[in-house]
Please model this.
Amino acid sequence: MITFKLKRNSLFIKLLGGFISVILILLSFNLFSFAYFSENIQDEVIKYNRQNVEVTAERYDNHIRIVQSTIARLYFNPKVVLLSELANSEQFEPVNLVVEEIRNILNNELLFLDNVVMQFGKNNFVIDKHGPGRTDETFSRIYTSPDYGPAFWTGQLNGSETLELFPQSSFSDGPYNRSGSYMPLVLRNKLNDALYIAVLLDAGKMFRSFHNSIDKRFYVLNAQGKLLYRSTDEELPSKLADKLMERSDYFKLDNSYYFYTKGATGLTYMNVISDDSLAQEASRLKVVLLAVLSLAAAMSVAVSVVVSVGFHTPVRNIIDTIEEANPDRRLRSKIDEFNFIHDKIKGILRLNRDIHDDLNDKTDKLRHVGFINKLKNIYSADNELADTNKPFYLVLFRMTLTRQFHQTLAVEPKRAAFLMKEYIDASLSEQFPDTITLQAEQDEIMTIVFTDEPAEQLIRTLESIKGVFDRDRAYCLLTIAFHPELHEPTGFTAAYEMARAMVQQRKLNGEAELILDYEPQQTMHIGFMPAQEREFAAHLQAGNEAAVLDIVKRALYAMEKRNSPAAQYVDFAKEATAKTMAALIAMKHDISGMFEDRSPYEDIQSCASIGDFTNFFEAFLGRAVALVQRRKEESHPVKQLMLDYLNRHYHEDISLETVADRLNMSPGYMSKQFKEQTGMNFSEYVNELRMQKAKELLQSSDCKIQEVAERVGYFNVNSFIRMFKKTAGLPPGEFRRLHRFGDGEGADGKQTEEKPGSAS
Model:
């Protein structure tokens, strides 16, 4: 006789437990059915409909408050205030702006508005979506209703309620050749009784959006019990007011149930359900119960099947584990005997796999070392590990971590680069098994794909990677350089150099970019022109922040018009930063306090758009100018005396001798003091001061060139034009067009010339 011990997880207990579960499920259903039907189903249906009408009321009230808030802003619109005082439709500019504002409000389809009407108390004047007009003409010919004529709209000027809703009525819109049924909602402002604003609510759209019921009879009444809206043609019974005493309740009248609730706006919302509808609801619940019965029967069958499968599956799983040599295959069984056998087999297979994986990992690391050595042109006896006997594609990824990344994410850049490398490697290895991905630089990842297939599949995979990184472009901008050319094994170094050159073609577009074409970059000047550099240094030395930023922004604007790649913006920013710090050091300023937790060069690498570069320069140059200005505030009183005199008399015919005589100094002493205190000699400072004043006049006035020259101390216009062009890099007339009309460059990117002696 065979004996065995009964354990909790033995096969016998599991089978027995499965059949008992089937019995318990059927028994539970019977108990549930008995308990449920012992309750009153109709009470649950009534409770549901009461909650339904309360939700509808809340949606209506919220919508009215949103409309009220939207319209309330119009009362404080300066143009509306001006029109309420003048009430004159001939004020075309404010009227057109108000009409445009009304149309913008009506364009919001979620407000369910057909029109916004402003009725002014003076001159019988009205403005709506059609424009300005007289009240009698607007509401008798343009926007007409049988219930709301001109007398109604003018009469509302005498109303006192801040919010008043009127019954729905049909309106005909003549200019738009359409009609509809709307409810007028009058919104008044006690602080401005010179006008009121009314809106036409599309009651039908509101009903369809806010109410859901098996019976479509829905009504809206005001605080006095007057009917404002009904969704059907069926009238409400008379004398309902004495039944609407509670805030929210229901009552039965004839063969219908009336569910109502009073909203915060004073309106009463009522939903009517017939006895037949309630019976249908009860029937629906019975169907649900029948479905539960069917589900219970199905679950019973399923449990029986699961128990049977629970015996077969572990055995099958153990066999598959041995055949596939896969120790990670899980055995979904709660039977102790099966788990014991499976764990032993998994241990043997895992040991074998670990040994194999360790060998493969060491081989891969040696291959990576070989490719890095080949990339850096380092000779090594192990270079034969870099298997270059196959044709390959080379892809280079350049990562630009934005300022937002450094400010908001608690991830080290090295960690972020590693995670990106792992994702790129996984994405490409899935499609191309013979792939090597390694980190060439701190911000560069290189992938070598060994294949002789066409490049189309690889391009699709790269576009997919680009799409993933595009979703995180606020934190990292990825540049992918891939020339769809199959390289020969000996062309590794040339392929890498081409990819690095292609990365430099990236545009400053704030998005991930896939570059497929190599375009040799033309050599062009990056940075300041000589005249701009002198002007930049002079304004920085003078502590003129606005002028310094203006020069930088002009250079950025010129690069934007040339559609320069991002690398040129970075080079320019680094050059301008270096010149600024060199100038500050030459002026013996302590620049250590200018840097926060990051150097300016790290901030430059994080710039992803022209706006980022502008913000960088505004912050960096602002700190630089602040150093200069603090030094100026602590300057010698003799310096301030000299500068104050020049600022008052720069438009006169002045010289070092005349100024020294006026200030009771000798010319030699003044020249020495001026150079020591300002870093510039007397004539350089006067010329820079006059040119700055001339630029301000050219930008802010319509004075002729001759008049501008005289007002800054030049009485020979040709001398003025030559000095201006030497300082600013372009003639005064072209400077005015650049700064007042934005067209300071021709199609070829060169400044246009102006001959000395011309005055515009």
Remarks:
- The longest helix spans residues 275-324.
